[in-house]
Amino acid sequence: MQFEIYRTKENELIEGCKKRESHAQRQLYDRFSGKMYALCNRYVKDKMEAEDVLVSSFTKVFERIDQYKGEGSFEGWLRKVVVNESLSYLRKNKNMYLETDIEAIDHEPDFETIDTQLETEDLLKMINALPTGYRIVFNMYAIDGFSHKEIASHLGINENTSKSQLSRARAMLQRNLLTLEREWIKKIDGI
Amino acid sequence: MNDRIDEFFKRRLADHAVAPTPGAWSKVEVNLSKKNNGIVWFRAAAAFLFLGLLLATLVWIQSKKIETIPTSITKVDSSHEKEAITKESNGVQELRPDLKSKPRSNAKRQPTLAQVESMPEIKKHVQKEIEQPAVVEVNSKIEITESLAVSQPNAKKPLVLEFRLEEITTPEQLTATEGIEVANMDSKNGIQKAIGFALEVKNGESPIINLRQAKENLFALNFKKDKKTIIQQ
């Protein structure tokens, strides 16, 4: 029931935005800007740059909102717009792809412990520490749900490159998580 | 293992939200207003262009109408002429209704003389009218006068031809200046002229007497003698 009311209000806002009503645009922005800004932060490390991407993303969303035909969730459509805008920003400003040899790690961290100990900001910092190409592929595949085929077409690379970038990103994150885990264990043992 | 890392990060970060700075919305508003202003200006420019074209079209149509007014006047005149000509033909035959309506349609189209001549319908009518001489003359005249009237609006300034004649000296003036009675001379025939001339010579009144005198003077001079005297000296 509550979900239906939420959807109805969202549809009303979308219709208002299609009529270029500024109060509807403002409400839609207030509803999604936090999530979209966090998404921008995962792709673009610098917070000011991420905000610029957010601004240009919402400008495009309000200009092209007629293209949203109600197929699928609005948030999903919005996410795709923001991801595309982030990628185009990175394409202009950054050298995205980097090949580094990362040693494979045999054992994995204890995710339950990490989950309780790590703040979201720490995880964001860990992602932002990845090289740009790894970060993009990991964000797109692991968090935003793109397939390797979609990633390859978006980034203009082949699928195998996408897969190799993803595996390297995972290996780096795993290593960082294990390092953090060891530090906490040492802290606990010291106490 | 890979799936667990992906799931871990997705669960923690997918719905993560961070509030942007308050200035972000105002930037979005500025961008949107810029675009909207652009659209408004574009629409305004398009509207002005449309109005301009509309006005130009109206002015053009108006000017066309003004140009066609003289044609209609001449058309009325030609109809009067037509009536006059039909009256002149002593009312032998009245114009048939189809022949009456024909010139009007031609006047609407404003054909040139060549076009009128080339029109097959008119040719047919002319051929028909050849068989009926009285009416043929009337209609062919009407058509030609109309076509000429149609061509008149093109010539806005009428062509004016001026002719100047030099003054011609009359026979009276000649007699007054030279003292010769030309009028009397004209009245005489050739023999009388010769007799008159001979009488004048005899009486010593003719100018030819002077010539004779000049000849005698000329021969009176002794050129040979003069030459010899000159050589001797």
In short:
The complex is a heterodimer of chains A (191) and B (233). Chain A has 191 residues and is an all-alpha fold. Chain A has nine helices and no strands.
3D structure, described in words:
The complex is a heterodimer of chains A (191) and B (233). Chain A is 75% helix and 0% strand. Chain A is an all-alpha fold and 191 residues long. In chain A, helix 1 packs across helix 2, helix 2 (22-43) crosses helix 3 and helix 3 (47-63) packs across helix 4 (74-93). Chain B is mainly alpha-helical and 233 residues long. In chain B, helix 2 packs antiparallel against helix 6. At the A-B interface, helix 2, helix 3, helix 5, helix 6 and helix 7 of A face helix 1 and helix 2 of B.
Which features does this protein show?
heterodimer, A: 191 residues, mainly alpha, 9 helices, 75% helix, B: 233 residues, 77% helix
> What's the order of the H and E elements of chain A?
HHHHHHHHH
- Taken from the alpha-carbon principal axes, the silhouette of chain B is rod-shaped
Tally of helical runs of chain A? 9
Elements of chain B, N to C (H/E): HHHHHHHHHHH
* CA-CA gap between termini of chain B: 164 Å
Q: Biggest interface between protein chains, with counts per chain?
A: A-B, 39 and 27 residues
| Share of residues in helices of chain B | over 70%
Strand content of chain B: under 5%
Q: Segments of chain A where pLDDT lies below 50 for 5+ residues?
A: none
Average pLDDT level of chain A: 85
Strand content of chain A: under 5%
Shape verdict of chain A: globular
Number of strands of chain B: 0
Oligomer: heterodimer
User: Describe the biggest sheet of chain A?
Assistant: none
Helix content of chain A: over 70%
